[in-house]
Amino acid sequence: MRQPLRWPWPDFDVDDVLAPAIAVRVDVTETRAEVAEHWHRKGQLVFALGGGVTCRVPSGFWMVPPHCGVWIPGGMEHSNVATANARIFFVYIEPGAAELPDRCCTLSMSPLLRELIIELSDCAPDDARSGFLGRILLAELPLMPVQQLHLPISAEPRLRRIAEALAEDPADRSTLAQWTNRVALSESSLARLVVKETGLTFGRWRQQLHLIVALRELASGASVQQVSVDLGYGSVTAFITMFKKALGKPPAKYLNDISQNGGSAFVA
């Protein structure tokens, strides 16, 4: 079951607030929540203090594990899905207020930046303290390391169809040859198309999806064993081996290091 995220106050339009940076805290209840596709003038940093958030933009899926953030430039269409019991902060930034990338990216979040966001979310946008905290945040945010944890997709209709099917059922282990029957392409043509549009082979592309789903579910409290089953792995060991090979650490240590070190556990 999905439900809309509820703002802490009614009739809130981020683009009506002229402050260079504002932060909004949203706590998700027992069921996961979704913000449908939308856009706004301000850029948005999606930051998860607990649980996880998956952001979708026209070029891909982006995962926001705990203590990390995803930057979405202003004017870009996007949607967000949060795990149950997630603690989320949306930071909205006026265009040009900070030297931030003009593309979507994952940012490591230092302990200082985390505390700034939490404090800023407790301030009214026109409060003097809000302006002070916002200036420090805008100075610190561009210094955060850019990391890569996303699933590249494209507007190509056949690849989008495959991406949507795998996102809906990540345990689907259909081979590239089996997918060719569904999208009316030869195996060699589909293989070339995936590489051309995503920069990854089909196997690596699907593995990236598995990593995104795994981190989202592990962040929401699912066990490693349950996640391995949900992703269609034959054993927990096979799942852990894939995870460690891709991200350098087994799942439990990876998430623990993110929590302790402000996101620096990421491998680009």
Automatic annotation (TrEMBL):
InterPro entries in UniProt: Homeodomain-like_sf, HTH_AraC, RmlC_Cupin_sf
Protein keywords: DNA-binding, Repressor, Transcription, Transcription regulation
Lineage: Bacteria, Pseudomonadati, Pseudomonadota, Alphaproteobacteria, Hyphomicrobiales
Gene Ontology MF, one: sequence-specific DNA binding
Protein's organism: Mesorhizobium tamadayense
Listed CDD domains: cupin_NimR-like_N
Name of protein: AraC family transcriptional regulator
Residues annotated as domain HTH araC/xylS-type: 160-257
